[in-house]
Design a protein that fits this description.
The complex is a heterodimer of chains A (about 150) and B (about 750).
Chain A: E1 2-5, E2 8-11, H1 20-27, E3 46-49, E4 52-55, E5 68-69, H2 71-74, H3 82-89, H4 99-112, H5 118-125, H6 135-151
Antiparallel strand pairs in A: 1-2, 3-4, 3-5
Helix pairs in contact in A: 3-6
Chain B: H1 9-12, E1 17-19, E2 22-27, H2 37-40, E3 50-56, E4 59-63, H3 73-85, E5 93-95, H4 122-138, H5 148-175, E6 183-185, E7 188-190, E8 196-198, H6 199-206, H7 235-240, E9 255-261, E10 269-273, H8 275-279, E11 283-289, E12 292-297, H9 300-309, E13 311-314, H10 323-332, E14 339-346, H11 349-353, E15 359-365, E16 377-382, E17 387-391, H12 396-407, E18 414-418, H13 432-443, E19 449-452, H14 455-460, E20 468-477, E21 480-491, H15 493-500, E22 525-533, H16 547-565, H17 569-576, H18 580-593, E23 603-612, E24 615-626, E25 629-640, H19 647-667, E26 672-673, E27 676-677, E28 695-701, H20 718-730
Parallel strand pairs in B: 4-5, 9-19, 17-18, 21-22, 25-28
Antiparallel strand pairs in B: 1-2, 2-3, 3-4, 6-7, 7-8, 9-12, 10-13, 11-12, 14-22, 15-20, 16-17, 16-19, 20-21, 23-24, 24-25, 26-27
């Protein structure tokens, strides 16, 4: 099947029911999306399908119906996305393992809701688990990214 | 130009030796000759020959031997070296270095000794000195116990200073200028006319110079990085998906594996049928390993699927298998023949309790999983002559020794490459997962193998924080706490984990009473007794170890006593506290939280204090009792690490510690049935999520005499501060964790 990931089209030979996460990680070598739970409880695997945040551990390859963007496609160290900039400015990451998922969740959320309330941020980000407890900075970084995006 | 030496691997570890066109620096405070340099000098504060700086034509490499499990250890180690070396740490390459006795930890051993952090007696100093020597002799290359900063604060700055002065010496040779005309700046030696010579251009010359040993560390007033907000060296990588964790390693020809071992802990694999699994797409092998099976495939998911398709005949667990029975075993160990320690015994508790109006309480805490978000994962490759291991681990040298035992290979041929860990919380002090991958590699030589555990395997094969119980008795006299008698029973972490590392556990286990026996209070009759429950399921260190639960027991009872006495919990602790830095964190948190002011209806405030890993931490939590349950509104924390080297990461670690403590206290427990952990994934073990996260206001104090680490100390007071706040808001005293068994949370 054909998959478009970060603007590049790939032909992959996988079962329809292989989760997108493992197509990305093991077939395409894109390791930004992380495996944390396999049951959509942690959000570490979050990527975008046509700009919408999805849990790639629960999205079967055969059900992919749009362009996929991973953290690597959102922005790079030399061309950061506003959300990544905010994450760096506020030094959100501790172990950092959940942060690709957190950032992808936040980027999609802010795209849909550029000026969220605190309660909306809490609701949108609560599906993403952080075992290190970086939540206070995640909250601040989402707000900071929101202001950055508004200025653009 | 100086000549380029070629050297053996061993000589790399000694001082300033040339390395392929460059130079490696270390500190040189020990005599190099002498038959046993480690025993030649037992004085405190001295460091071994420790290479931490490598310079070659490619650039500057800093060796950061303490593992980064999220606490920021790599970045902090780099900043400590860079401060004296005069480089921007962001321009250096960081590597973990080889597993080596040279990178011993001289501090962590003291945590296993009955020495209060607040004690400065001759005995205490001797004990700490012995821990330092033990660390050297055993070559404890280990990360843990919030020890990175206290252990390496001097050693790494010294390494940076030795390297800097040696490079200056090289510049003196090259230019003929005297020392006092040269200075250093941003990776260069600067000449009087402003001309700069890059360190990289001096490396080869420096390789021929005996390292300069008589260096003086800079006064803190001259620091450029330390005590200022630092930019974590890994922050860009971790915000762009480019950080490589153990789970991300990719090698040519690599295959993917997973394992399934008996979920009934300690039980055997009686037999298995892999016929269906072997037919599945991409499956290359199904192999027996100790206690289970391994599946090797061309994709991790295919390996996962096939592992589930293997039919296994599991033997029973040899351990007490049900949590009710496990607690019964703990309860049964409150007896003289199980007494493990009584490090605290002030006044005469027995006489004080005799015939008095005794307040009694019993507390329980559950087993807890570490569950770092990166599941156990490792890449291994074994050939006839060497074994390479890439993974996140806190114990590279034990890994080397244990894998030598497993494979029969010489330890020198086993190379442990420590990668960034996606969390640990103590889990990576174990190497069971590495052993499994090596077992696969022994059956598939010459093939790189990436082994990843399914999350369910991770939860069911953890070595949890042990369950424990406490029985407390106290009396109030003249409106004050007069007797405080805490008996704590738990299985021994030291006994369980040291046995797996091939080390003996001698004497009492301090962890059973840590965070309780060593608190800085002058109560007239004050006793803390530890009872050792016979070993049950294997257990290990979990962020803040013994204090993680003992803080709850000690501080819940302290709160109960204060309420019984009708005294203010903050005022009473201040009255009882003799340790100045501890008093100051209590005073600070009182001031920060507006302690004593009216919060309005359905609200409450709880205070707890724990001194753990040498760090006094006081926390005040505000809660509201809403129609939907308890909402945690705010947390105020004051902690004293002696000197805050990085205010950014200090705050992050304190907030993270509070959230770790609160999340587990709210809703986490690991329970067992027939030796099988009943919580297999995060739906059954949530911890805290963002919507529940309170505002956490942090203040760092600097009154303590010694520098301390902050990865763990904020954890212990969180649970009792919350339970005490719930009592204040609702009148309901909860003596068992998780709190969600007794009350709802928003």
């Amino acid at each position: 099947m054909k998959l478009t990931v970060n603007g590049e089209t790939h032909e992959v030979d996988v079962e329809d029911d292989m989760p997108l996460l493992w197509v990305l990680r093991d077939e395409l070598g894109i390791t930004g999306p992380k495996y944390g739970c396999g049951i959509a409880q942690c959000g570490a695997c979050t990527v975008h399908m046509d700009g919408i945040a999805v849990r790639s551990c629960q999205l079967a390859a055969g059900d992919v119906s749009g362009d996929i963007t991973t953290i690597e496609g959102l922005g790079t160290p030399s061309a950061l996305h506003a959300v990544q900039e905010a994450w760096i400015d506020l030094q959100v990451a501790q172990c950092g393992y959940c942060q690709a998922g957190q950032i992808m969740q936040a980027a999609s959320f802010l795209d849909l809701n550029p000026d969220p309330t605190d309660a909306q941020i809490d609701a949108a980000m609560s599906g993403n688990l952080c075992r290190c407890g970086s939540y206070p900075r995640i909250r601040t970084a989402v707000k900071s990214a929101s202001s950055k995006l508004k200025r653009v | 130009m100086g000549r380029v030496k070629t050297i053996a691997r061993r000589s790399f570890l000694i001082g300033s030796a040339a390395i392929a066109g460059g130079v490696a620096f270390g500190t040189y405070l020990y005599k190099r000759d002498g038959t046993n340099p480690l025993l030649a000098d037992l004085k405190m504060g001295e460091t071994a020959i420790t290479p931490y700086v490598k310079i070659d034509a490619q650039g500057i490499t800093l060796i950061t031997p303490r593992a980064d499990v999220g606490q920021g250890a790599w970045s902090m180690q780099a900043h400590l070296i860079a401060e004296e070396l005069d480089i921007d740490p962001a321009t250096a390459t960081l590597i973990s270095g080889p597993a080596s006795a040279i990178y011993y930890n001289g501090v962590v051993g003291a945590e296993s000794m009955p020495i209060a952090a607040t004690s400065d007696t001759l005995l205490a100093r001797t004990g700490r000195g012995a821990a330092d020597v033990m660390g050297k002799l055993m070559g404890l290359h280990i990360t843990g116990g919030s020890s990175t900063v206290p252990d390496l604060y001097d050693r790494l700055r010294m390494a940076g200073a030795v390297a800097r002065e040696t490079l200056i010496r090289a510049a003196m040779q090259q230019t003929g200028l005297p020392r006092n005309q040269l200075k250093t700046e941003n990776g260069c030696v600067v000449l009087p006319d402003g001309l700069k010579i890059e360190y990289l251009d001096l490396a080869v010359l420096a390789a021929d110079i005996e390292p300069v040993q008589d260096v003086t560390l800079r006064d803190p007033s001259q620091w450029r990085y330390l005590t200022k907000p630092q930019k974590r060296t890994d922050i860009v990588a971790k915000s762009t998906g480019t950080q490589i964790y153990g789970i991300d390693m990719v090698m040519d020809g690599m295959v993917y594996a997973t394992t399934r071992t008996n979920p009934a802990l300690g039980g055997e694999l009686v037999g298995f049928d892999a016929e269906d699994a072997r037919k599945m797409r991409g499956v290359q092998a199904v192999l027996p390993i100790n206690g289970g099976v391994a599946v090797v495939a061309d994709n991790t998911w295919r390996a996962f699927q096939a592992a589930q398709a293997v039919t296994c005949d599991w033997g029973p667990s040899p351990y007490i298998g049900d949590t009710a029975d496990q607690f019964a075993a703990v309860a049964a160990s409150f007896s003289d023949d199980h007494q493990d320690s009584q490090f605290k015994d002030d006044g005469d508790v027995v006489a004080a309790l005799e015939g008095a109006d005794v307040i009694e309480a019993e507390y329980r805490i559950p087993y807890l999983a570490h569950a770092p978000l990166e599941p156990m994962s490792v890449v291994v490759k074994m050939t006839e002559t060497r074994l390479d291991i890439w993974t996140g681990t806190q114990i590279p040298r034990f890994v080397q020794a244990n894998m030598a035992k497993l494979t029969g290979m010489d330890a020198d041929n086993i190379h442990v490459h420590v990668l960034m860990s996606g969390g640990s919380f103590g889990r990576r002090l174990e190497d069971d997962y590495i052993g499994q991958a090596v077992e696969i590699a022994m059956q598939l030589p010459d093939t790189p193998i990436k082994m990843i555990w399914q999350r369910e395997e991770d939860f069911t094969h953890d070595f949890p924080r042990p369950l424990a119980m406490a029985r407390a008795k106290g009396i109030i006299k003249n409106g004050a706490v007069d007797a405080f008698d805490l008996a704590i029973a738990a299985p021994s972490v030291a006994e369980s984990s040291l046995a797996r590392l091939g080390q003996p556990a001698i004497g009492p286990d301090v962890a059973i009473v840590a965070g309780a026996w060593d608190q800085p209070f002058d109560i007239p009759n004050y006793r803390v007794t530890g009872f050792r429950t016979p070993a049950m399921v294997p257990i290990s260190s979990w962020r803040s170890v013994g204090a993680s639960g003992n803080g709850f027991m000690h501080e819940s009872f302290m709160d109960e006593m204060c309420h019984a006495a009708g005294v203010d919990p903050l005022a009473e602790r201040l009255r009882l506290c003799w340790h100045d830095p501890s008093r100051k964190v209590l005073e600070a948190v009182g001031e920060m939280s507006g302690w004593g002011s009216d919060l309005g209806p359905n609200r409450g405030r709880g205070l707890a204090f724990t001194l753990a890993f040498g760090v006094p931490v006081a926390e005040v939590i505000e809660v509201t009792n809403t129609d939907d349950g308890i909402r945690i509104d705010k947390v105020f924390v004051a902690a004293d690490v002696g000197r805050v080297l990085d205010p950014v990461n200090f705050e992050a670690q304190v907030q993270g510690g509070v959230i770790f403590g609160l999340g587990h206290a709210m809703n986490c427990e690991l329970t067992y049935k027939d030796g099988v952990a009943q919580q297999e994934n995060f739906h059954a073990y949530e911890g805290m999520r963002l919507y529940q996260t309170p505002e956490i206001i942090v203040r760092g104090l600097e009154n303590g005499e010694k520098l301390r680490g902050i990865g763990e100390p904020a954890v212990p007071p969180a649970a009792p501060a919350l339970a005490n706040a719930i009592f204040a808001a609702t009148g309901k005293r909860i003596r068992e964790l998780p709190l969600s068994k007794s009350i709802d949370f928003v």
